[in-house]
Every structure is written in C-alpha cells, then in structure tokens.
C-alpha cells in the first residue's frame, strides 16, 4: 500500500482510540468524526477499487446491500444512509488491511501497543479517582479511559487482549516485556471495569485461544482438537444459563429493562422479518412497539424510547431483517472457515497460518460474544479494529501490491481529481461535519441555559436542529421545554413535534397535549394525551394523571 493511503489509515487507528473532546454534547462523536474524515479520504485516494480482492468481500458487500434494501420500510431514509455511510467506512478497513506491507503491519501493531499502554494507564488513574477530563459521569470509578463509557471501553479491551498475548509469545527482547505489560494492564482494566458481559467474552476468547494455540503447535491432534472445541462450547453453552441466570436476575430492574428491550426488538422483527424497519430507524419505532411488550413486564421504565437494544444481532435483525442478519453472520462464518482451513498450514505466504492470527481470531470470538449483550459494531474504534483484524488475517506476507489502475495514466486525471474532491466534500459535510458542528451547538446551548442565557440557548438549539435534524430528538425536546417555560406554546409544540417525529416518546406527546390545553385547543390536547396513554408513560402515576386529564377535558367539550 502506498504511504499516501496508509497514513490516513494509521492516523484513524490511533486517533479514534485516544482522541478526547468534551466540547460536544456527545463526547464520543469526535471518534466518529475522525473516522469519517480520514477513512473516506483514504477511500478516494485508493486507485483500484475496481479490483477489490478478499475472501470476505462478497459477504461484506451483501451486508452493505441489506442496509440499502432496508430503505423499503424506513420511516426516515436519512438515518439509513447515515448508517450505510459509517458501516462502509468501518468495513473498508478490511480491504485496506489486505494490501498492507510487512513494514506497515508492524507499524500498526506497534501503534496498537502504545495506544493500549496509554489508555490502560489512564483507566487505572480513573479507578484511583484521578482524572484530568471533566466527563459527565465518573461511573463510580469504573475505568472508561478515552472512550467515555465503561461498556464501550470493555468491548475494545476484549477484542485486543488475545492479540497482545500472542504478540508477547512471538516477540523478542524488550518488546516482549512491553506486550506482557500491556496484556496485564488490559486485564486489570477489564476487571476494574466491571462489565460482566465483557468478562464472559474474555473467558470464552481465552479458552478458544488456548485450544487453537495448542493445535497450532501440534500439541494436540486434529481429532482431539475438534472434540475439545465441541465439548468446551457445549459446557460453555450449558454453563451460560447459570451465569446469565445470575447476570440477568429478574428481580434487578436494570436486567428487566434489558430483557424488555430485547422483546421489543422481537416485536419489530415479527412485523418486518425480511427487510427490517430500516437501518438506524430502531429509535424511531421503539416506542411504538414497546407499548405492546409493556403489558408483559410490570416495571417502571426510565423512558419509552431507545436507540440500541444491547444485542447487536437483534439490532441488525430488527433494522435490516433476515437479509441483514444472515449477511452479517456470513462474514464471520466465512472468516472462521478459512481460519480453520489454514490453521495448520505450512504455507507461510498466508497470514492465516501465523501465530498472531490465533490472537486475532480469539479477539473476533470475544467481539461476537460481547455483541450478545452490547453493540460494539456501533462503537467506532472497536468496529474499525475488528474489520482491520479480519483483513490482517487474510493479508499475504511480503505484500507489495501494485496499482492496477492509476489515475496518473488517465487522460482526464484533473477532471477525476476535481470530481473526487467534490464527492468528498459533499459526503463529509452531510455525514460528518454537520453532525459534529450541531453537537457543538447542543453543548453550547446546555451551557448557556445553565448560565441563564435562555434566548441564546434557544438560538443554538435551533441551529443544531437545522444542521442535524435526524439526530435532534433530544435537542428538539429540550428546545420545546424552553419555549414552554417562556409561554411560547406554538413554538413549543413545533419543537416537540420534531422530537416525536424522530422518536415517538409518550412523554413528549403528553407535553404537546399540555401545550394545546393551555392554548384552549381541547380536542388537540385530548388527541395527544390519548397517544401518550397508548404508548404508555414510564411512571404509572403519570399514566393515571393523564387519563384523568382526558376525562376532565372531554367534560369540557
């Protein structure tokens, strides 16, 4: 790979892991922004996409196509294209990794080493109560490092640990001790992190790593290897019920809430089983389906809307249907087919046959298991690294791929360069920059509100919505609250309607009803209160209060 393409990729790998910026409402958006800027730049610089290689390429393309097909039932098409853009950005790392030279691979591995040293030391400081960043929450001193959330951090850790262990085994001299130190620090951070789903993923990946390493070293015979794999996974599958019974204690409200989310996803799947409700559109539909599930779960919910159901497979199934789920799973089935095929190969031309790939494969196992209780595919550094690993596993040794298709040989190279630049600017502005700027305005609006600058806060919320409508459900709600407190009920209703357009909050329908009531528009008030009752307010006492409001309002008609 030419350096002009390699360096944007390297910068992305480094910065998406360590970058911190709290000038936005969502402190994690900086990582997504960096990925969009640099990887799209590398994509446009790559000169031979027409000659894409890779054993997983068709499965990845089918997965991306399933996202496009999900447009059929999508309420908000823009959210589908937003999802498609970032899944394309993440998955392109697989194709880039295929072309890395040995020197470039080693640079990436060393970068991962130093990244892990930095983030784990920072995580240790957080556990000790020492932090130089003003995060929204300290999560009870659970380390989250530069990720801003312990669950996000845990998903990255379990993906990386097996690689660091195998690099320790492979490396020599001082590097060996650095990899050992990194492995120990990652495990310590994982223990302090207290994400039990990540612990389960870690244990399974280490057992898997031990088995494949023993088989790779021919310490156990092939037939014994497959018997052990089968027995251990049967034990793990059986034992998981005991673990999950404790983990998902049905007397624990947070556990019930997670089970509630999964059941809500199933309701969406039953309605649109083939093509899904639309990529990125789960948040739009969640409240509409959760009301059906609420009758079975007698709990007090924190809210009536969610963006993620904390299960990557259910999320993909609900949003992109069976087509999306099967294409996504097929990526990993194909990967492990080739991994086991070349596990004992003496063909050193293939990275599949290397010791390092045992660590990569075990990290992929951890990623897949962690996806059962979280959403690592939506976490930028984790998703990028996972697809990078898939490509590194397949990359050939001593690769120095020549450019089969060079812009410099084209008669109209200047026109192509200008055309590519225009595409880059359009895509970056629409999918990256506008979201980032909008989130800066959201943060400014919050700060100005706390300072008492209400008018300035309103203007900043309005700008944020204009820039990034599809992600402004909470912004519009906060704006509606400001207008309502000022007695501007018309603008409050307008803002609230933007919020329920993006997420059908029962709570916001109640607010709309209250505004109409204050405007003496009784029928409109009743209609919105009834919608709130239909969706179900989180607090049962609020539900009863709204019912009484409806009865009283009807008596006034």
Helical amount:
over 70%
Q: What are the low-pLDDT stretches, counting only 5+ consecutive residues below 50?
A: 239-244, 401-409
Instruction: Say what oligomer this is.
Output: single chain
Can you give the mean pLDDT? Answer: 88
From the alpha-carbon coordinates, what is the Rg to the nearest angstrom?
25 Å
Number of strands: 0
What's the story with the biggest beta sheet?
none
Kindly report how far apart the N and C termini lie.
73 Å
**Class based on secondary structure composition and strand pairing:** mainly alpha
Work out the helix count: 21
Shape: globular
SSE string, helix = H, strand = E? HHHHHHHHHHHHHHHHHHHHH
| Approximate strand percentage | under 5%
Number of domains: 2
Which features would summarize this protein structure in a list?
Serine Threonine Protein Phosphatase 5, Tetratricopeptide repeat, globular, mainly alpha, 2 domains, 0% strand, 557 residues
Question: What's the gist of this structure?
Answer:
The protein has helices at 3-18, 29-45, 57-69, 77-98, 102-127, 150-170, 173-193, 196-216, 222-247, 253-271, 282-294, 312-341, 355-370, 380-394, 413-451, 454-467, 473-485, 489-502, 506-518, 522-535, 540-556.
Descriptive notes:
By secondary structure, the chain is mainly α. The chain has 2 domains: 3-135 and 142-394, no CATH class; 437-556, Tetratricopeptide repeat domain (Serine Threonine Protein Phosphatase 5, Tetratricopeptide repeat). It has 21 helices and no strands. It has helices at residues 3-18, 29-45, 57-69, 77-98, 102-127, 150-170, 173-193, 196-216, 222-247, 253-271, 282-294, 312-341, 355-370, 380-394, 413-451, 454-467, 473-485, 489-502, 506-518, 522-535, 540-556. α18 runs antiparallel to α19 (506-518).
């Amino acid at each position: 790979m030419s350096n002009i393409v390699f360096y944007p990729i390297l910068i992305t790998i480094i910065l998406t892991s360590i970058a911190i910026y709290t000038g936005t409402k969502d402190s994690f958006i900086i990582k997504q922004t960096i990925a969009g800027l640099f990887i799209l730049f590398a994509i446009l610089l790559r000169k031979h996409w027409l000659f894409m290689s890779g054993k997983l390429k068709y499965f990845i393309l089918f997965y991306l196509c399933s996202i496009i097909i999900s447009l059929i039932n999508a309420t908000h098409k823009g959210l589908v294209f937003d999802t498609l853009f970032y899944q394309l950005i993440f998955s392109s790392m697989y194709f880039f990794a295929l072309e890395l030279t040995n020197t470039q691979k080693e640079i990436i591995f060393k970068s991962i080493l130093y990244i892990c040293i930095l983030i784990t030391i920072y995580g240790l400081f957080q556990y000790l109560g020492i932090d130089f960043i003003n995060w929204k929450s300290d999560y009870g001193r659970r380390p989250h490092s530069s990720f801003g959330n312990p669950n996000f951090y845990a998903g990255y850790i379990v993906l990386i640990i097996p690689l660091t262990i195998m690099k320790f085994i492979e490396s020599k001299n001082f590097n060996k001790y650095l990899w050992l130190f990194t492995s120990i620090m990652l495990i310590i951070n994982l223990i302090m992190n207290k994400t039990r789903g990540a612990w389960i993923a870690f244990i399974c990946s280490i057992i898997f790593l031990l088995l494949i390493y023993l088989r790779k070293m021919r310490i156990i015979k092939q037939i014994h290897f497959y018997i052990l794999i089968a027995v251990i996974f049967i034990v793990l599958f059986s034992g998981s019920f005991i673990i999950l019974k404790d983990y998902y204690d049905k007397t624990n409200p947070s556990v019930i809430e997670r089970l509630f989310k999964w059941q809500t996803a199933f309701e969406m799947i039953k309605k649109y089983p083939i093509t899904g409700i639309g990529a990125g559109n789960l948040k739009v539909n969640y409240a509409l389906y959760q009301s059906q599930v609420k009758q079975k779960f007698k709990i007090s919910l924190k809210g009536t809307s969610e963006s993620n159901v904390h299960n990557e497979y259910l999320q993909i199934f609900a949003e992109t249907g069976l087509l999306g789920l099967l294409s996504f799973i097929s990526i990993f089935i194909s990967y492990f087919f080739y991994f086991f095929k070349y596990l004992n190969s003496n063909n050193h031309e293939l990275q599949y046959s290397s010791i390092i790939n045992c660590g990569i494969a075990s990290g992929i196992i951890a990623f897949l298991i962690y996806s059962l209780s979280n959403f690592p595919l939506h976490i930028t550094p984790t998703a990028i690294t996972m697809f990078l690993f898939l490509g590194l596993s397949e990359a050939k040794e001593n690769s120095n791929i020549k450019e089969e298709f060079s812009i410099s040989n084209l008669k109209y190279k200047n026109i192509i360069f200008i055309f590519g630049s225009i595409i880059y600017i359009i895509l970056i502005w629409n999918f990256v920059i506008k979201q980032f700027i909008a989130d800066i305005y959201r943060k400014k609006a919050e700060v100005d509100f706390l300072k008492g600058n209400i008018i300035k806060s309103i203007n900043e919320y309005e700008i944020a919505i204009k820039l990034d409508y599809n992600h402004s459900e909470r912004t519009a709600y906060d704006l509606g609250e400001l207008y309502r407190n000022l007695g501007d009920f018309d603008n409050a209703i307008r803002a609230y309607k933007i919020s329920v357009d993006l997420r059908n909050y029962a709570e916001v329908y109640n607010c709309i009803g209250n505004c109409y009531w204050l405007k003496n528009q009784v029928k409109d008030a009743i209609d919105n209160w009834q919608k709130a009752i239909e969706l179900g307010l989180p607090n049962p006492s609020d539900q009863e209060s709204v019912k009484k409001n409806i009865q009283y309002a009807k008596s006034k008609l």
